[in-house]
Design brief:
Blueprint: E1 2-14, E2 18-20, E3 23-25, E4 29-31, H1 39-51, H2 57-60, H3 73-86, E5 89-99, H4 109-119, E6 127-132, H5 138-141, E7 145-156
Parallel strand pairs: 5-6
Antiparallel strand pairs: 1-4, 1-7, 2-3, 5-7
């Protein structure tokens, strides 16, 4: 068994769609990023990469490469999970937290878990997603952006 932790944050930008956990969310702002800006999946990718000692998402998908411009982060997640499997591991479970003052995310959490479970060849019961606010504190509390944390356990697939 191995454990990994990931974190990501992006600022809001007008005129972009908001995507979290692979789900398009109705909101006035999206997230500024080279890819689709899905902070939840980016944190999850970092946690998975950390669990197998493979660095971070920026090393595998640099923002200096046009290959990843506006890419769907679910594509990145599936690539990262292929690396996890190549190393002889599979997902035990993932515990994910989204920190955002707005928008309200609870209506979208189950769909996010289903998408992530599909991309990780797992059952949705292995994916736990929570959303919280910061009670108005910090950049997320001032509605400047969104952040996410991910903790994963991977277990031997053998």
């Amino acid at each position: 068994m191995r454990i990994g932790h990931g974190y990501d944050a992006h600022r809001f930008e007008a005129g972009k769609p908001l995507v979290l956990g692979g789900v398009k969310i109705s909101h006035d702002y999206g997230l500024l990023a080279h890819s689709d800006g899905d902070v939840l999946l980016h944190a999850l990718c970092d946690a998975l990469l950390g669990s197998i000692g493979e660095g971070d998402i920026g090393q595998h998908f640099p923002d200096s490469s046009d290959d990843y411009a506006n890419i769907d982060s679910r594509v990145l997640l599936r690539h990262v999970y292929a690396l996890v499997q190549q190393k002889g591991f599979k997902l035990g479970n993932a515990d994910l937290t989204i920190i955002a003052q707005a928008p309200k995310l609870s209506p979208y959490l189950n769909k996010m878990a289903l998408y992530i479970a599909k991309d990780l060849n797992s059952d949705a019961s292995q994916i736990n997603i929570k959303a919280t606010t910061t009670e108005g504190m910090g950049f997320a509390g001032r509605k400047e952006g969104i952040e996410a944390h991910a903790v994963v356990i991977v277990v031997s697939a053998r």
